Prior knowledge:
Elements: H1 2-30, H2 37-49, H3 57-88, H4 95-116, H5 127-158
Amino acid sequence: MWSGLLSGAAAGAAGTTALDAVTYLDMAQRGRPASSTPQQTVEAITGRLKVDVPGDGDIRQNRLTGLGALSGIGTGIAVGATFGALRAAGFRPHPLLASVVIGLAAMAASDVPMAGLKVSDPRTWSAGSWLSDIVPHLAYGMVTSTVLAALDRRGRRGRR
Length: 160
């Protein structure tokens, strides 16, 4: 089980890198700004928990931006670790299905809290906004699934 969690965490980190790369390529290609929803989500969570993010003005906003990015990394690693544990327990769908399921799980792990905290309402998003969310998450799922499978094959070869 620990091996599955660790393999999944590594796969999730690789998937997070892919998600970030696809997101930044989209920003560069379309000239769109970075999303502010990660830091708004952190701000909503800290407000609910009555935890103060220190600083004023730009310093506080920079901290929230950093915490928003770190929360995305943490989500990517946690989703990967979850699917690594599931793979270790025998959940091994077709690679394409695994990619989609993992990508959609990561998307839900970031979008559901954001919607629940009323930071954004996905029901009001444009088609372009949905594409900007779905495509990077599918890249995350594909890379995470591929790395999980590769680590699993490598682990089985090492046990022979």
